[in-house]
Amino acid sequence: MALRPAANLSSFPMNTCFNYGESLKRLGDDQALFCAMARCFVEDADGLLGEIAEGNLRGEAQRVERAAHSLKGLAATFSAATVVSKAQCIEECGRQANLTRARAVLPELSEETARLKSELLPYATLDSANDDESHA
Fold first, then answer.
1. Distance from C-alpha of 54 to C-alpha of 64, rounded to nearest angstrom
2. Which of 53, 49, 57 is nearest to 110 (CA)?
3. Going by fewer Cβ within 10 Å, which terminus of the chain is more open, N or C?
4. Which of 9-18, 19-28, 116-125 shows the lowest mean pLDDT across its residues?
5. What CA–CA distance (Å, rounded) separates 23 from 1?
6. Comparing C-alpha atoms, which of 102, 105, 111, 109 is closest to residue 59?
7. Nearest to 115 by CA among 18, 12, 13, 10
8. Where are the alpha helices (H) located in the chain, listed in sequence order?
9. d(CA 28, CA 24)
10. Any residues with CB less than 8 A from the CB of 72 and at least 6 apart, and which?
11. What fold is seen in the domain 19-125?
């Protein structure tokens, strides 16, 4: 996958929810991979939040734990400390079957996840544009 010049990435607004430098280093300085992972996060985050909420409603602690674990892993790719911390809290709540606490933390996780998604969207969109070009 060919990536547009790096200048496009450096022109993106300053991010506050994640650490671009750490993330890029974690991914072997592969900008295309970073963009692909951003796209995964943008595409998958809402579904994982939905799984957490549905698991809470149905009293399925293991479902809550698994979905929170997955979201935590995706967010960790971007060194998104707040999302990781909130997801980890909910994951532990699921493990302990403390769904009342998980339910209380979910709005905070949802809000932070939305912020992270909005900051990753330009990267995810760049990846999508490059996929289109590479398949043309």
1. 8
2. 49
3. C
4. 9-18
5. 19
6. 102
7. 18
8. 7-10, 20-26, 31-58, 61-76, 81-95, 99-134
9. 6
10. 83, 84, 87, 88, 91
11. Four Helix Bundle (Hemerythrin (Met), subunit A) (1.20.120)
Residue 6 banded pLDDT, cuts 50, 70, 90: very low
Are 112 and 17 in contact by the 8 Å Cβ rule? The answer is yes
Contact 83, 71 (CB under 8 A): yes
Q: How confident is the model at residue 9 (pLDDT cuts 50, 70, 90)?
A: low
How many angstroms separate the CA atoms of 51 and 42, rounded? 15
The per-residue pLDDT for range 101-124, each reduced to its tens digit, is 999 999 999 999 999 999 999 999
What integer pLDDT is reported at residue 96 of this predicted model?
Answer: 98
pLDDT reported for residue 127: 42
Instruction: Name, in order, each residue with C-beta under 8 angstroms of 134's C-beta and a sequence gap of 6 or more.
Output: 1, 2
- The answer, yes or no, to whether residue 14 has pLDDT greater than 90, is no
CA distance 79 to 19: 6
134's tokens: 């590479």
